[in-house]
Amino acid sequence: MSILVNKNTRVVVQGITGKEGSFHATQCKAYGTKMVAGVTPGKAGQEVEGIPVFNTVADAVRKTDCDTSLIFVPPPFCADAILEAADAGVKLIICITEGIPVNDMVKVKRALHGRDVRLIGPNCPGVITVDEAKIGIMPGFIHKRGVVGVVSRSGTLTYEAVHQLSTLGLGETTCVGIGGDPVNGTGFVDVLPLFEKDAETQAVVMIGEIGGDAEEKAAEYIKKHVKKPVISFIAGITAPPGRRMGHAGAIISGGKGTATEKMKALEAAGVRVVKNPAEIGHAVKAALGR
Amino acid sequence: MNVHEFQAKQLFAQFGVPVPRGKEITSPEGATAWASELNTPVFVVKAQIHAGGRGKAGGVKITKDKAAVAGLAKELIGKTLVTHQTGPKGRQVHRLLLEEGANISKELYLSILVDRDSGWPVFIASTEGGMEIEEVADRTPEKIIKELIDPAVGFQGYNGRNVAFALGLNTIEPAVMNPFIQMMGNLYRLFMEKHAAMVEINPLIITKEKTIVALDGKVSFDDNALFKHADIQQMRDLTEEEPLEIEAGANNLNYVKLDGNIGCMVNGAGLAMATMDVIKLAGSEPANFLDVGGGATKETVAAGFRILLKDPNVKGIFINIFGGIVRCERIAHGVIEAAKEVKIAVPLVVRLQGTNADEGRKLLAESGLKLEVANDLWEAAQKIVKLTGKAA
To answer: Which chain B residues are Cβ-neighbours of A211 within 8 angstroms?
Structure first.
């Protein structure tokens, strides 16, 4: 078992003929993911590493039955690409693109509301179910199939945590990057119930950072609904207020969204909060009594 | 990106949000000329810096004497203002806003930003105008009014009525009800069309003449949307920004200067923050946040070195790279090449992990460069702190 994606997931890559798109489509395919289609308007009939290219997502869905989209389209055109995928009937949209205007995402999120489609990201590394499907830009080889679910607002920091889990022999089920933007498609509270229900996942690592209140909301949810151990690290305890730390969403504004506040809320909900990012793996091991 | 008050007010005027008559001034002569043209009973001279708390720091002067305006301008231009938002170094004043005074009957607060929880734009209003809104929210949360705007249909009259009645405008001054609601609609348009990150009016005043006026204005813009707005890009004032941050931006690096003395260079924003945190845990303080991005190359590493070394506080450098798609041996080559170009006189610790990390570490160890190599994050942090000494 796993969550969101598995070996049957059929992926279309939007922006497949671009530099990023073609490179990562190739990498995902090499991992064993079913990469069935690509889309670049005006380039139908071409192939990228044996993956057929279509002009529209609607065409790709009709011809290949793809159910998941992986988006590398540049920021100015990305809102359009997400809405196109949703309209074409794709059920899961994973958007890697960084730098989409917030107000564009406000409109996209509103348009997707109430529809049978899930958006992951934007500005995220994607989703991987170990040894089944890698749909994103994460390095596949650091993962090892195991028992820990990972959900994170960060990219390389997630790789750091995954590396620790793999090295300690715990391994992962599915790792979900929800992205570092202030308005995103899927939050911690959407992913946590999936891990709670997944039989193979025994513990959850949740990696948050400064800005917003997604971690506080997660804490509320965990307190009420999550029985599996949750281990968390929150990045940015040394970040100054009012300054954006790389990610568009990583900012302490009006004194809200500090790492300390988030850690306090999570600890109060019974989450094991790790202060040292080098200790994430060991904390999971201890929580699982191994 | 932040803009000055006078620029915010230009945008307000453009979108039909009433503001006092005023103009940007950069010299005492300019002040005299505009004062004559203004011809108002009260003149207000306001220092223009990208920080709040100007009034308390002596950055706002009021006079009824037209002849005194030039003197006030002279006093403020070149002055360094220290407010709770500038830090102890303060900020030098280069430009002023000279505008007409207003007869204040009541001060309100109004702002609009994106509510991260719902993903909808939200108006925040309060009868406690002229105060720090965070303070109001802390002490009297019942005085904070929030109104979410459905982005599918945009601002509607009822949104305005909800806020106006909650503020009690119908009893405070019924004549401003409709102008206030109309102004909210205009602010919403400005917010969405110009891709603002936040628009704040504090105070928004009701005048004795029963009009509504934005007496102050603060607007910040979404950096990711600036490509759509040439007019907003032109409002950027580089004198308000940290020079090292401007240089980093020009090299596509994400850099934020901090006050500690361990410079750090990391790939990825989350890992960069975590690296700062681990430096603190090991007993020192980070000098900066620096994300060199997913595709770190020799060029980006060299630019990163140059920027870090220009900060005189930097006593040591910590490079933390988790190689994913980027291979560690290429990063190692980058560090070696860059270190040859840029003279590094401070201790350097490089931690490589991920793709081809062993190869990368071997290259660094054999390079002849004076540096320490580490495998593990915690080990690396302790090494650099040991080499540079703990923070005082």
So the answer is: 116
What is the assigned CATH class of domain B243-388?
A: alpha beta
CATH architecture assignment, domain A138-287? 3-Layer(aba) Sandwich (3.40)
The answer for A 30-59 residues in CB contact with B (under 8 A) is none
Is the Cβ–Cβ distance between A161 and B270 less than 8 Å?
Answer: no
CA-nearest residue of chain B to A99? B224
Distance CA B120, CA A209 (A): 21
Task: Report in angstroms the alpha-carbon separations of B90 from A93, B57, B87.
Answer: 47, 10, 6
CATH for the B1-19+103-241 domain, from 3.30.470.20, 1.10.1660.10, 2.60.40.1180, 3.20.20.140: 3.30.470.20
In CATH, which superfamily holds the domain spanning B21-101?
A: ATP-grasp fold, A domain (3.30.1490.20)
pLDDT, one tens digit per residue, over B113-134 is: 999 999 999 999 999 998 888 8
- The model carries a pTM of 0.93
CA dist., res. B195 & res. B193, Å (int): 6
Tell me the pLDDT tens digit for each residue of B261-310.
999 999 999 999 999 999 999 999 999 999 988 667 778 888 898 999 99
Annotated active-site positions of A, please? 247
Count Cβ atoms below 10 Å from residue B157 Cβ, excluding itself: 12
Residue B192 phi, psi (nearest 5): -75, -45
Amino acid type, A59: D
Looking at residue A1, what is its pLDDT?
Answer: 77
* Helix pair angle (B157-167, B177-193), 10° resolution: 120
Q: How far apart are CA A181 and CA B118, in angstroms?
A: 14
CATH of domain A10-120: 3.40.50.720
Does this chain's domain A10-120 share its CATH topology with A138-287?
A: yes
CA angle A277, A281, A286 (to 5 degrees): 120
List the single residue in A with minimal CA-CA distance to B253.
Answer: A246
Cβ distance B270 to A159 less than 8 Å, yes or no, reads: no
